């Protein structure tokens, strides 16, 4: 399972809901964790591996690995914070993105069990970043047009190296 890079149309499409919770889904989720760890990530959305489904995984050091299927952000805080983000679909590109500091999210796990969690700090940021992928939104879409054009220019130079 390979991570697709910026420019692949799947990254800018709204992903489809998951309807089947079966062994195939469980294998796919396990493969997502493997791909994420292989590329040294802490979050990965299904569109980033070329699959337009509403699934993402998160594995932050000090926390348990988490699977989010058909997630819905219920609430976000008014408090915002800037933090440097990267993205496996933009290797080598990092910049500050402003996001809500905390959130509440509802989703299903790979066994089809619903859950709701509250998250803050890095976990909230990764959830918001990965959830954006499910809506066809990229982290470069969250910066000013000038920063976006500079980032894409820099990214193009990185790819040529």
Detail the topology: elements first, then pairings.
Blueprint lengths: L22 H16 L4 E3 L9 E4 L7 E11 L3 E7 L7 E7 L1 E7 L5 E7 H14 L10 H16 L1
Antiparallel strand pairs: 1-2, 2-3, 3-6, 4-5, 6-7
Task: Summarize this structure briefly.
The chain has three helices and seven strands.
Query: What is the top-level CATH class?
Result: Alpha Beta
| Helix content class | 25-40%
* Corresponding CATH architecture: Alpha-Beta Complex
* Strand order across the largest sheet: 1-2-3-6-7
Regarding quaternary structure, what we see is single chain
> Biggest β-sheet, characterized?
5 strands, antiparallel
Which ranges are low-confidence, i.e. pLDDT below 50, for 5 or more consecutive residues?
A: none
Mean pLDDT, all residues: 93
The CATH superfamily appears as: Peptide deformylase
- The total beta strand count reads 7
The helix-strand sequence is: HEEEEEEEHH
Terminal-residue CA separation: 24 Å
Structural class call reads: alpha+beta
Cα gyration radius (Å): 15 Å
The helix count comes to 3
The figure for the number of domains is 1
Shape by Cα distribution = globular
How much of the polypeptide forms β-strand, as a percent range? 25-35%
């Amino acid at each position: 399972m390979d991570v697709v890079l910026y420019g692949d149309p799947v990254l800018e499409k709204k992903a489809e809901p998951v309807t089947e919770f079966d062994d195939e889904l469980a294998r796919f989720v396990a493969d997502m964790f493997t791909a994420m760890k292989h590329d040294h990530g802490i979050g990965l959305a299904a569109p980033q591996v070329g699959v337009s489904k509403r699934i993402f995984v998160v594995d932050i050091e000090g926390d348990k690995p988490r699977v989010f299927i058909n997630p819905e952000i219920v609430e976000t805080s008014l408090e915002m914070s800037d933090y440097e983000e990267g993205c496996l679909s933009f290797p080598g590109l990092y910049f500050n993105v402003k996001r809500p500091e905390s959130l509440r999210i509802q989703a299903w796990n790979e066994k089809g069990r619903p859950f709701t969690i509250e998250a803050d700090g890095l976990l909230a940021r990764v959830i918001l970043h990965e959830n954006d992928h499910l809506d066809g939104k990229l982290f470069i879409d969250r910066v000013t047009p000038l920063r976006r054009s500079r980032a894409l220019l820099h990214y193009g130079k990185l790819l040529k190296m």
